[in-house]
Amino acid sequence: xxKKSNRFLSLTTPPPLSRHPWIYVNDPxxxxxxxxxxxxxxxxxxxxxxxxxxxxxxxxxxxETEKLGYCLDSLKDDATFGAGxxxxxxTEHLADSKTxxxxxxxxxxxxxxxxxxxxxxxxxxxxxxxxxxxxxxKWGPNHLELGITNMTVKEVxxxxxxxxxxxxxxxxxxxxxxxAKLQAVDKQNxxxxxxxxxxxxxxxxxxxxxxxVVVIVTKPVVVPxxxxxxxxxxxxxxxxxxxxxxxxxxxxxxxxxxxxxxxxDVKALPRMPMVQVKESRRLRIAKFPLRTAGSAISGVGLALxxxxxxxxxxxxxxxxxxxxxxxxxxxxxxxKNGKMKKIDWTAKFAQERKDRVAKLEKTERWNCAKLKAAxxxxxxxxxxxxxxxxxxxxxxxxxxxxxxxxxxEKEFC
Length: 413
Description:
- By secondary structure, the chain is an alpha/beta fold.
- Among the domains are: about 20-170, Rossmann fold; about 180-275, CATH 2.40.50.
- α1 packs across α4, α2 (about 65-75) runs parallel beside α3 and α7 packs antiparallel against α8 (about 310-320).
- It has 11 helices and 15 strands.
- β2, α2 and β3 (about 85-90) form a beta-alpha-beta unit.
- The longest helix is centred in the C-terminal third of the chain and has 23 residues, at about 280-305.
- It has helices at about 35-40, 65-75, 100-115, 155-165, 170-175, 250-260, 280-305, 310-320, 345-360, 370-380, 390-395, and strands at about 20-25, 45-50, 85-90, 120-125, 145, 195, 210-215, 220, 230-235, 240-245, 265-270, 275-280, 325-330, 330-335, 340.
């Protein structure tokens, strides 16, 4: 009987995309040109000016800060307005000496941002004197003090923009990057691959040639007990997990390229087209009764609460796989008879290693038992004998020493 494939067991579901952050900027110059320039850099950004609270406001009335905060918070659910993909830029025009007023405004907005499940950052631009050192901690961790006397408007905005990428997470970088940059596909290497948002992946056929432009969220890691790298990415439509399968020397270049990815990088990643691998007609007929029974058992298992898990598992085992399976094109081998066969890379590499070990064990160079016996008689040696080497240095034998990695793929799943 067949067994359930563990191909995707190690792939986890990514978390939802972070909400747009709120950014407070105090611009001491007339008409707040620096904040306006920052808004243009971000692109999808809502800028709202904050009005100083009325000193005669009664205790029962809401301040302008609170009113604006609630207004901005309500925009997140307005689908027609599209605020869900916009950064909120809250500006204020106060002199250098009004530190107490600035801190009060920033504190209130920070509290409302946190309660709404968002991150918050604050920027205090000053002409002569910034916040005193003993008071800077009151701003919170994501805060920038910047003197702008000898800087142009563009230089100030660029400094703030670059700083935001250092304090906000990669999932929040998505909201800071203009839409055009996150749709800049790799036309040079993958000209026939169309752009696709992560959320629209399922709307394309399995064999479609598509590519994503994403922000790298996590550093690629090797999935245990596999030869796969997995990492998480994000674009404005959501988040997803990508993986790359090591397929021998032809994939070494891409393996190294993926390992070099860093959180915050913006990259175009093409999806490897998939091909449909079908079983032979004789095998399909032989498995048909078991597949039918397995499907029925699985269906019943989903409806039962007490024993549903056990029944569903039995159904999965009894179904004995699918008659046709979509497999990445790089994981398919064409046999002599012209039929396609799915490659089990874990089993393939395990067999290669087994064959290599068996071959090396026949040589004197690999006979560590004799070397250990000699060392036992002679006592500890000062220099390590290079003739006895471990698996990591013997996986590439002499017949592979002159072999060069071929750059043949740079597609991901």
